DNA sequence: CTGTTAGCGCGTTCAT
DNA sequence: ATGAACGCGCTAACAG
């Protein structure tokens, strides 16, 4: 509430000196510096960041767009983002898009209106509108988890979903499974295509038939997992193993399978994806793919900041390492 | 990137008129208004919010301070906050304090430096430092879930934790339980005192002894739930029912209890708190207290905005309704 | 090392 | 109904 001028008065210096004291303390005489700090203290002065932003053109904040705040996996990413941002003097603006394009549009606009300097997308599931595509040309941004397929290549931090699903599929075929079901979260995204492709490639190698009617689900949620399992159990051929495209889905699926009086993994093996924390506490604990969510968040910040600072991007696509976590929700197929 | 001046040029008007067109469209002639909108479109003009903030002194954003982003309950609150904020033209700055006072301090400073207009605390667990107490005098703020006991009374949105725990305790005593354990999340907070008080009041009425050595745990986490259960099971008298002060703790506790070869609820009943979504999908599903997290978030925004807008607060303490959710993790004591 | 000056982009009186 | 002019609080030249 007190301004830089009051500090000037108290210290008997000009605004420039006060400003310098705050930004490059070593550019100013120790003696006066002390005096200024004292004055700042006394006045209870806090620089008005808005005012400085007008000058510098930097807001020192980043928007993060997330389609679904209830997903613990995204949250872990956000923790990484928040931490890295804070370490770099940036604050993070939360944009819960709920998957609605118009909310996404609004939040993206924050960068244009100077409220934020950059944009981090989590799992962007729909293509940009023409308007936004133009926007994306000049706005520092990065996408986490989902590469956006379009003319311009946005930088992206992601997993090798194809390989991860191959690992999962090999794990299951090695247990003797031959009849599979899949509960997906979206069926339009690149993630979906990569993962499905990975699974199919293994089944192909093993000479196992797979019918696309065994792919169900269109939302990353417990409910969708539950509904998906129900649908799969109602089919003519019951799968002995189900791929769930995230852990929430797997949790819902297992819940449903148990309701049908079946046992996991004895009757049906279930595998998830993401390795959210609770998956280790489920009964049975979930076999899943670990994604280094926290690190992905940190990397995302690194990449946007690089763009903001006009440093050349070393690479446009960063692949992070997955680990397959074998727990008790998957096992040998019962004979 | 284009400024208001370019719009002026294109439309052949002054900056004042453009500014007015954006804020009070009806103050300006329909004809010129159209021309200006066209110019805005053409120039791709977006007002610089920083610049306007300098003038108005309002940033149109709120900071939310959260001690632990991994807690789904907090997330649900944040969803409510985000939505309400957005509806009111505010954006939300995320402050993950990790329970560290200095990070809290930093984020609180955002209000002083005009980066935010108000502050929402989630489950503030430590008292303000003297510096911050002074701060709190003049900053619009509200606390959710935890009332801060200090000289000044901050507005707070909270549950009647005392009554909620009475309901839980009555539920369990009605099942015949007499030996209880408690796994708490903190033991210094007002929440802790309220909840413990509620439980004890019921036990007292029922003539049941309760030893404080049966209170364990100091963190709202799976691990702490697991460790707490372990400790309780190792005691001389094994409890037949355990109160967990949130659902994460309960999940950890049940996991541990099962590892010991015991059954929930046959051997031990477990109740949680918060009713996070996954609790319905656990095996067994959790008996718990539902807190209307989303609504709490919305109310919090209402309250801060009221302060920001200098409207008198109707009341300083808002109590929201809880519901006891009886599921399968609690049952009759085995004889 | 420090002060003077000139804006940053916008909102807001005053006039007209 | 519109324009000219000033200033919000601060930073960044440029002098000295």
What is the compact description of this entry?
The structure is a homodimer of 335-residue chains. Chain A has 335 residues and is of the alpha/beta class. Chain A has 12 helices and 12 strands.
What do these coordinates show?
2 copies of one chain form a homodimer. The first copy, chain A, has 3 domains: 4-47, no CATH class; 59-159 and 293-321, Response regulator (Rossmann fold); 161-290, Response regulator (Rossmann fold, 3-Layer(aba) Sandwich). Helix content of chain A is 44%, strand content 14%. Chain A has 12 helices and 12 strands. In chain A, α7 (130-138) links the parallel β3 and β4 (141-144). The longest helix of chain A has 16 residues, at 72-87. The termini of chain A are far apart. The model of chain A has no long low-confidence stretch (mean pLDDT 93). At the A-B interface, α4, α5, β2, α6 and α11 of A face α4, α5, β2, α6 and α11 of B. Chain A binds a DNA duplex (16 and 16 nucleotides) through α2 and α4. Chains A, B: Pfam families: LacI, Peripla_BP_3. Chains A, B: This is LacI family transcriptional regulator.
């Amino acid at each position: 509430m007190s301004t830089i001028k009051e500090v000037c008065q108290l210290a008997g210096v000009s605004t420039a000196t006060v400003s310098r004291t705050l930004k490059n303390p070593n550019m100013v005489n120790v003696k006066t510096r002390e005096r200024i700090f004292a004055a700042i203290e006394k006045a209870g002065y806090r620089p008005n960041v808005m005012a400085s932003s007008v000058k510098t053109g930097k807001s020192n904040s980043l928007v993060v767009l997330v389609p679904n705040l209830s997903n613990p996996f995204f949250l872990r990413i956000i923790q990484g983002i928040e931490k890295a941002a804070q370490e770099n003097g940036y604050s993070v603006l939360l944009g819960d898009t709920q998957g609605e394009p118009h909310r996404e549009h609004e939040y993206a606009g924050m960068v244009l209106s100077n409220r934020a300097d950059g944009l981090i997308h989590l799992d962007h599931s729909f293509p940009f509108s023409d308007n936004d595509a133009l926007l994306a040309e000049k706005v520092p941004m990065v996408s986490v988890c989902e590469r956006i397929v379009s003319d311009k290549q946005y930088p992206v931090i992601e997993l090798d979903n194809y390989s991860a699903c191959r690992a999962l599929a090999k794990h299951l075929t090695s247990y003797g499974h031959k009849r599979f079901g899949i509960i997906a979260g979206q069926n339009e995204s690149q993630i979906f295509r990569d993962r499905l492709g990975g699974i199919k490639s293994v089944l192909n190698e093993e000479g196992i038939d797979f019918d696309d009617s065994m792919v169900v689900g269109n939302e990353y949620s417990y409910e969708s997992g539950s509904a998906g399992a129900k649908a799969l159990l109602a089919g003519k051929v019951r799968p002995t193993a189900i791929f769930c495209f995230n852990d929430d889905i797997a949790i819902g699926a297992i819940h449903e399978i148990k309701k049908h009086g079946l046992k996991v993994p004895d009757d049906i093996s279930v595998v998830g994806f993401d390795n959210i924390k609770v998956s280790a506490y489920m009964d049975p604990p979930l076999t899943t793919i670990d994604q280094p969510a926290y690190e992905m968040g940190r990397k995302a910040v690194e990449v946007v900041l690089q763009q903001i600072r006009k440093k050349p991007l070393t690479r446009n696509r960063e692949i992070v390492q997955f680990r397959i976590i074998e727990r008790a929700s998957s096992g040998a197929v019962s004979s």
